[in-house]
Amino acid sequence: MAKFSVKRIRKPIIIAPSLLGADYGNLNEYLKKFEPFCDWFHVDVMDGNFVPNFTLGPVVVAGIKTKRPLDCHLMINSPHLYIEAFAKAGAASITIHVEASKHVMADIEKIKKTGCRAGLTLNPETPVEKISKFLPHLDMVLVMSVRPGFGGQKFMPQVLKKVRWLRQHYPNLDIEIDGGIDGKTALLAVKAGANILVAGSYILKNKNPRKAVEKLRAAGKTNLQTKACP
Ligand code: DX5
Ligand code: ZN
């Protein structure tokens, strides 16, 4: 019988609060509260076109003062027009939607040329096959676990099979999960292989955001893989 040992995945767990539930009138003061116990800030950019909601553009991103990396999730059409502007505004990573881009590979290259980390997003209904040829060129894949556009929606567990497939085939890829993440769903996502947890309502609307983040980190500690030993 094969012996099994348990090995931790080397990918660190990253907790990234989404700014979607933030106080936009007082963003910097607001973010200061979360900065000490969070890793990245997830900036949801919406154009009222690709998704039925508006948020903010590069001018507002440029005004964000934080020590944490800004993870810009562009839910916008024709992202190539704005990649450089977001990079100049201070983005550390830029993730676009495969359905929103006419020239996906060129956009990935454009992101990388700015020095930002490049990501592609899978909507809940988008199959992994749609991005498979781009996977070797990506720093990360964002798996949407709700329909893009609004915070506070219910987690869709059916997307986890895509996370599992990605982790199995790309052990070193950063896999981000976004939408409906809380203490319980974080556990499912991490077990499936996600290592970047975006959470909006669960952290920002929590009376004790530090505790909420601790719960997400605790889910991250279950980040174990079983490996058959020879
Ligand atoms: C939805 C956004 C998410 C959202 C997450 O389009 O991409 O980042 O803000 O919010 P919660 O955690 O409330 O689902
Ligand atoms: Zn997002």
Low-confidence stretches: 1-8, 226-230
Major sheet: 8 strands, parallel
Alpha-carbon Rg, integer: 17 Å
Shape: globular
- CATH superfamily, please? Aldolase class I
How would you describe the oligomerization state of the chains in this entry? single chain
CATH architecture term? Alpha-Beta Barrel
Average of the residue pLDDT scores: 93
What is the level 1 CATH name? Alpha Beta
Bound compounds: D-xylitol-5-phosphate, zinc ion
> Structural class given helices, strands, pairing?
alpha/beta
In total, how many domains does the architecture comprise? 1
- What string gives the helices and strands in order? EEHEHEHEHEEHEHEHHE
Helix content: 25-40%
Proportion in β-strands: 15-25%
Number of strands: 10
For the termini, the CA-CA separation is 10 Å
Brief overview, please?
29% of the residues lie in helices and 24% in strands.
